[in-house]
Amino acid sequence: MTDHAEYAQPAQGASSPDKPVAPGAEPGTLPGRRPRRGPLLLWSPLFALVLSGALAAAVVFSGASPVMAGVLALALEGVCYAAFGLLGHARVAWAPVDPDPDTGPRLHAQQGRQFAERLGQLVDGGGDQAVIAVLGQARAVAAELTERATEVTGLLAIAGVHTAERLRAHEGELEREIDGLAPGTLKSARLAALRETRAWREYRERWEAVEEPLLGSVALAAERLLQVQREGAQLLKRQRGGGKGGAPDTTRLAADLTTAREALARAGELVGDFPPGPARTYQPQRRLALTGLLSAAVLLGGLAVAAGEWNIFVALALIPAFGFLAGLGGGPRALVPGVAALVAAVTLVLAGPLVYQQVLGERREAEVSMTVRVQVARWSETTHYDLVDANTGEDLGRMATGPHEAVPGRTLIEVATDPLDWARPVAVERMDLAPVWTAVAGAGLAVALVGLALPERAPRARPVPAR
């Protein structure tokens, strides 16, 4: 049995191809249309350019390095690309529908379980050995019917409510729309919808080619197994009642069983080469979300390095980070790299300057040239220190992270400085845990990058429950 049976229990609320759609109900969506967001996606490159340009100008105006401003602008572009991309990609439109449990292969799967149970009772009751032998074989065939009918139910669920002709027409509409779009998130969203529609159409074409003989074979097997069960029960009843006429004739019983076996064999041949279902079609949400999280980590860490201590922005960092994380889906396969990227982003916010100076910083002795006390809140205040090199008198600027205890002016302290002049100095005594923060941030980014490189995969549907 192939893994298509896992789709036999589709998403709740989906329409069924075996039932007429109620007036006013949605007959099933097609991939790719979000008209109200179309203008936003169309102009998204300009929005991202304006936002990143404004950020770069603000960073340069604050006195940071132009190179640092460029890095931050690129990181913001990545965040915008992921955000607009996630807005443009609809959730999986090719989702399994819910076949009618009272007709078709789903009913036959239930009958197979009932047949196997009843035939087992007849075999356990004993009787003529020839009849019991045929009924024992029929019980195994009933189990095969349950397995095959469940698989066919999954195929029927995946095939959906739209015909291959309708999907082919939608595919053409998407192709014509894509031809008129400039590169960007809107075109990317439409390309993803085109891939999904094409895969769905190929699957639906295969289903329509085998639908009639496949459903007919499963129905025939169920019908003949029912005859075997009834005929066998009658033969055993006559024998136990003391009926005359010699040994029971099992010719018809065996013929019906042979027909059921042949029908199931034909069904098995027909389901052997179906295309993959929606769990194997390309879905861009996870990759976009991880791209956004990684870009957010670089952006927030860079802002922390450029601006120094800014723990008040941790809350602002968590809002978009959790937003991207919520769009991941896909279970642990997507959740683990998403959480890793989120941890890296928060670590860089909290300890960005320490991590940066741990990796690139050079240690030197500096003198405090001026102290500035700032009231952060009614219950808290902090001290900023301006530094000069103790040996050369070179202006080192304001410290990003000062010593544990406040020190007066003219005090000599050991600091780590950036040779590239991107980041402000930090006190060496505050770098005790810098290797730990560096390892945490590096591991988080590494896990997220590995997750970004993994192939895309949409969540699987749950298997059909026994009834």
How does the SSE layout of this entry go?
Elements: H1 38-42, H2 44-61, H3 66-88, H4 104-125, H5 129-159, H6 164-179, H7 185-240, H8 251-270, H9 285-307, H10 314-326, H11 332-360, E1 362-377, E2 380-389, E3 395-398, E4 412-417, E5 426-427, H12 434-453
Features:
disordered C terminus, alpha+beta, about 475 residues, five-stranded antiparallel sheet, elongated, single chain, about 60% helix
Summarize the structure.
The chain is 59% helix and 8% strand. The chain contains 12 helices and 5 strands.
Question: In words, what does this structure look like?
Answer:
It is a single chain. With 467 residues, the protein is α+β, with helices and mostly antiparallel strands. It is 59% helix and 8% strand. Strands 3-2-1-4-5 form a 5-stranded antiparallel β-sheet. The longest helix has 56 residues. It is elongated, with a radius of gyration of 34 Å. The C terminus is likely disordered.
